[in-house]
């Protein structure tokens, strides 16, 4: 007679991975909304969250630092909130002009001599810029444009705009333009073309950017766009009006940058211990940048009033601290790159700990700092080239003047950019060891499976290791 071997009796307790906190439990990874598959179905780590569990004690320590900091930022926002930008009488200079939309309805070419009766008689010397310009204005062909105002109280009104042949901006029929309005000028001179209307290409480019971010980043991309909108709102609704109201620019910049940092990091990366470490690293680096900026801007006697725009601001608001405004710009300008460095370093340390949970804090720090050195080299080079690119016309002007390197570097225009670049770079370099050390301390403070670990109730090491490698145990607290 053939007998059939029966399988051994199952253990009296729940099967591995199916007890409280396991995949079959409502609190597990395969609870409501989970896949409910076999234990090996989640044997990999999801890249969207930290892999190493953090003990309740460490979460309390992090909260003890961040909650008072967040409360202080909120109080600062309430105390310094400006309400609105203060009114002033328009000067009609630069950006401080009334503008309206308009359209070029007609353009004809005419002899410049017929529309430039007061032009200087050319002397034949075209070796100078003035001589060449006078020659073209006397003998060249100018554009005579009829422009119709399309917005404001004078909508439908037309005026004539003469475009010189050597003008960098040439008009054409049907072109949308921006016109300046000077109410105190004679009627025939009240309107003049100041720029072209760039709204359509700018909106299309912004839409392409948002589409690319959402397609590639998906939900993270959507969160990043929301964080970007919040950052822009803090900048335009709080930082700029508060500075114009007379508040200390450094204090306003610190409070505003901290608010942007908290919203952007937690919104994009989640309310986790890993994000909290990145916030702490960013905060320390911002404080260092503020201290160094205050020291060297004062030591180098940088006024912050170096061009027509800053001169106009100082003329409109003489009590405004322009050097403080320069320092505020350094802090805000460094924040975006700092976020990238601190989040990357924190994530690197977390992933290193996931790959080898037995790695101690010193090994974690050394491995993380090796990654950080590559990051430092690329980020500092990026920051320097970004500032150099923005100041390229200025550097070209000094090159044309054949000034010495020392003269160029110590002039206030260039010295501002050098101080801005070097202080921001020092803050970036410092953020790497600071953030790496904080992350190594946090992730190595508790061993998976040890007492107090959320992944291993009862102190068993196997479930704790499973939580690190696959997340099969209780839902991890971040």
Report what the structure shows:
The N terminus and C terminus are likely disordered. This protein is of the alpha+beta class and 478 residues long. It contains 13 helices and five strands.
On the 0-100 scale, what is the average pLDDT?
75
Percent of sequence in beta strands: 5-15%
Order of helices and strands: HEHHEEEEHHHHHHHHHH
Number of helices: 13
Q: How is this fold's topology laid out?
A:
Blueprint: H1 56-80, E1 98-111, H2 112-115, H3 129-139, E2 141-149, E3 158-163, E4 176-181, E5 191-196, H4 199-244, H5 249-269, H6 273-299, H7 308-316, H8 322-355, H9 361-390, H10 392-400, H11 405-410, H12 412-444, H13 461-469
Antiparallel strand pairs: 1-2, 1-4, 2-3, 4-5
Quick synopsis:
The protein is an alpha+beta fold and 478 residues long. 55% of the residues lie in helices and 9% in strands. The protein has 13 helices and 5 strands.
Task: From the structure above, extract its key features.
5 strands, single chain, 13 helices, disordered C terminus
